[in-house]
Amino acid sequence: MSRVILSPQHPLSAGLTGDSRLVRAYRGERSDTTPVWFMRQAGRSLPEYRDLRVGTRMLDACLDPGMASEITLQPVRRHKVDAGIFFSDIVVPLKLVGVDVEIQPGRGPVFSKGYADAAGVAELTSIDPARLDAASGPITEAVQRTVAELNVTAPSGISTGSTSSATGSTSGSAASTRSTPLIGFAGAPFTLAAYLAEGGPSKDHLAARTLMHADPGAWSALMEWTAELTGRFLRTQVLAGASAAQLFDSWAGALSLADYETHVAPASAKALAHVHDLSYEVADASGTTETRPVPVVHFGVGTGELLGAMHGIGVDTVGVDYRVPLDVAAHRVGADVPLQGNLDPALLAAPWPVLEAAVRDVLARGKAAPAHVFNLGHGVPPETDPTVLTRVVELVHEAGA
Ligand code: 1CP
User: Fold this and answer.
1) How many CA atoms lie within 13 A of 16 on its CB side?
2) What is d(CA 177, CA 175) in angstroms, rounded to the nearest whole number?
3) 103 CB near ligand 1 (under 6 Å)
4) Residue 15 backbone zone (phi > 0: left; psi -120 to 50: alpha; other: beta)
5) How buried is residue 134: exposed, middle or buried, by Cβ count under 10 Å (0-12/13-18/19+)?
6) Ligand 1 near 44 CB (within 6 A)
7) How far is the CA of 106 from the centre of ligand 1 (A)?
8) 10 Å Cβ neighbour count for 285?
9) pLDDT tens-digit profile of 329-357?
């Protein structure tokens, strides 16, 4: 695999985010305290988000660079989390290549039809995934605008995770010392296929699970295609300035380990191949240059049985949902693997003493891993009181030191 070095302006290359708490944790190093961000930290729990979204459909908001950037920054400003997660959706690349999809409020992605058989897959895969690159202008612009803001705002108060004066920077301008890293993301091929086969959200993802066995040829064509498309979406975000990449295989927990390994994991690995070559250079005090890869995280819901396999496709950090305690997860993936997670989102609505004890428990169990990024076991529920999230960030920073 030949390496592609990120541009000198990229926050990782410029020494702005490479030593942040987040990126260090994804490398397996601990910092002054435990980094924290929340899946779905942007979105309906924030009144400023609800105000901004009035009259704009979800996918239109994702494709408006100014709006996507502002929504990404809202929770960073408010909660002082250690990362922004790019405001977009896993179906955005499908929309960009012309697939007929909408996000219905309260429901999720809905397609004009399901792609559950060979004819449907043939129709879908007749679209060249490379078309995404020409259509990704709004994504690149939104990421660039977001990163520029994160660079500007970081020194004046946003938690950046700086621990010492060493920057490890190759260019290290004095004006902009540190920046909050932006995480780019994409849906894994199976989770996208679960929506595509069904034509919308479902509980058990039966159409995808049937197709995988009923027509393995059509299934692998569908997985190859989604891998190519979603991998390009992820690469676009990293090239534009994201300092880490997370692959969401939210619904992989519906699968047996055997089905996951045979019919899904190879496609997820192919998707990640689109970012595995991306690297940045850092010079140490003696002037020796080290090349580091862009960190990659892999997360799914209900994937306790799959954690080892999900690490095995070649990721740095494994995201764990709330069902498996982090010390147990560490045992399953190996003691050298950084973990991300895993407060049960339901506890955000519990009385503070109950929530505080749960946060401390997650932090204690996270010590079983070489490094831990605090997060929820799944997304922030829309009805969450945002002041509770801010308080959790403060507690993690204080107790996770
Ligand atoms: O109007 C709205 O507020 C719509 C709600 C919403 C939001 C805020 C949807 C519809 N998507 C998003 C943004 C989004 N989607 C982000 C933003 C960044 C952040 O985390 O702050 C991310 C990372 C996603 C990724 C996503 N979309 C996933 C993977 C993560 C997960 O939660 O498991 C999945 C499965 C989707 C599909 C989707 N999009 C929206 C909904 C409600 C759903 C789930 C539907 C279902 O239950 O099947």
Assistant:
1) 29
2) 6
3) yes
4) left
5) exposed
6) yes
7) 10
8) 7
9) 999 999 999 999 999 999 999 999 999 99
- Tell whether ligand 1 has an atom less than 6 A from the beta carbon of residue 110: no
Label residue 283 by pLDDT band (50, 70, 90): confident
Atom of ligand 1 nearest to the CA of 86: 18
- Gap from CA of 89 to ligand 1 centroid (Å): 6
Residue with tokens 């977001």: 146
User: Of the candidates 169, 321, 308, which has an alpha carbon nearest to the alpha carbon of residue 248?
Assistant: 321
Q: Measured from the CB, is residue 201 less than 6 Å from ligand 1?
A: yes
Question: Per-residue pLDDT tens for 304-332?
Answer: 999 999 999 999 999 999 999 999 999 99
Q: Smallest Cα–Cα separation from 4: which of 396, 331, 217, 275?
A: 275
The residue among 381, 63, 214 whose CA lies nearest residue 222 is 214
Q: Is 168 in the pocket of ligand 1 (CB under 6 A)?
A: no
Using pLDDT thresholds of 50, 70 and 90, give the confidence band for residue 151.
Answer: confident
Number of domains in the chain: 1
Q: Whose CA is nearest to atom 8 of ligand 1?
A: 43
The residues, any chain, with a CB within 8 Å of residue 351's CB and separated by 6 or more, are none
pLDDT at 287: 87
Do 89 and 43 form a contact (C-beta atoms < 8 A)? no
CATH of residue 163's domain is: 3.20.20.210
Ligand 1: which of 62, 89, 321 to mutate, most ligand atoms within 8 Å of CB?
Answer: 89
Element holding 135 (H helix, E strand) = helix 131-135
Mean pLDDT for 75-86 is 97
Alpha carbon dihedral 103, 107, 111, 117, in 10-degree steps, equals 150
Whose structure tokens read 């993690």? Answer: 396
Q: What is the pLDDT of residues 157-198, one digit of tens each?
A: 344 444 333 333 333 343 446 899 999 999 999 999 999 999
pLDDT for res 164: 36
Atom 15 of ligand 1, residue of closest alpha carbon: 89
